[in-house]
Amino acid sequence: AGRSHHGRTRRVTSETVPFNNDGKVSAFDTGNGELRWSYSHSAAFNSQLVASGARVYLGSEDGSLLALDANTGKLLWHYRTKGAVRGAVANGNDIVYFGSGDGYVYALNAASGELIWRKRTGAGVEAVVRAGEELLVASLDNFVYKYSLNGTRLWKRRLPGRISSKPLVTKRAALLMPFSGSAGVVLELRDGRQINLLPTGEEIATSSAPVAVGDVVLLTTEHGLLAFAQ
Fold first, then answer.
1. Most CB atoms within 10 A, among 3, 70, 122, 228?
2. Is there a contact between 67 and 77 (Cβ–Cβ < 8 Å)?
3. Counting Cβ atoms within 10 Å, is residue 198 exposed (0-12), middle (13-18) or buried (19+)?
4. pLDDT tens-place string over residues 98-125
5. Rounded CA gap, 90 and 50, in Å?
6. CA nearest 44: which of 57, 29, 59?
């Protein structure tokens, strides 16, 4: 693992940053559509890009997490793992948290990219999300884990299928969509206890993440959209 290319950052509020699987990411001004900057990487991107303050984070198929200057597209640093990085980055107190296909959850210094801690799960990590002052981690070993922000594991719970989508987290619970299952599973954040099921009526065969819109939770299936009251 390693890091490189430190730099200074500035805040940007008027751009969108799309990317595709050719390893290129571009930023466009939302007001006039003009290209602001473009950055090319040596491997494809297949992750959820996250913009936080003056930085843009995205994971690569070569195992790298990259931090770019949101205003210029300059590479500030990158950290290399041993598996593809496909999930979103979670932020907290100048630290970024993310998972890798190598089975580890990583915590890095947001300014420098230096490793603070890493913790191993049983398989590739698909998603890391903030749950208040803690982290919820979905792994392809069919377990969901909860960690403190300093890397202490608080609990883990086995689900009836692997989790390939980002969990939906509320103040007291999390909704996860086990692949090949037929229902979303709602866990109590405090102890990981199952408190509800959201039946889909068919086998879950999509990695689309559930979305909350007001008091409604939307689930995408192969044949349509389901809405549940929160």
1. 70
2. yes
3. middle
4. 999 999 999 999 999 999 999 999 999 9
5. 8
6. 59
